[in-house]
């Protein structure tokens, strides 16, 4: 399992999961408007992710290209499992019940869950 990444690091990973490899400047171009981060902030986050072995780096002249070393689905599976384990004793049913009790499930969510359950049973 990958070491925990911060919310800011996750924003960087989402960019790179969408398209890679990218330079720090290219990553910054994709988050500067929505996050207001400077290029230096993006470089710091990229360095942290590389140190955590979540990103690979490759020198390209004077720049570095960054590529995810962890697939998005694998990361989300691990984070989701830890969340369910920590807060719901490893059981998904109490999570769904909690969301239903808090009126967090839309009719569309319920329909999708029912469809998923039908597929799992088949």
From TrEMBL:
<dbReference type="InterPro" id="IPR036390">
    <property type="entry name" value="WH_DNA-bd_sf"/>
</dbReference>
<keyword id="KW-0804">Transcription</keyword>
<keyword id="KW-0805">Transcription regulation</keyword>
<dbReference type="InterPro" id="IPR005650">
    <property type="entry name" value="BlaI_family"/>
</dbReference>
<dbReference type="InterPro" id="IPR036388">
    <property type="entry name" value="WH-like_DNA-bd_sf"/>
</dbReference>
<protein>
    <submittedName>
        <fullName>Predicted transcriptional regulator</fullName>
    </submittedName>
</protein>
<dbReference type="GO" id="GO:0045892">
    <property type="term" value="P:negative regulation of DNA-templated transcription"/>
</dbReference>
<dbReference type="Pfam" id="PF03965">
    <property type="entry name" value="Penicillinase_R"/>
</dbReference>
<dbReference type="GO" id="GO:0003677">
    <property type="term" value="F:DNA binding"/>
</dbReference>
<keyword id="KW-0238">DNA-binding</keyword>
<comment type="similarity">
    <text>Belongs to the BlaI transcriptional regulatory family.</text>
</comment>
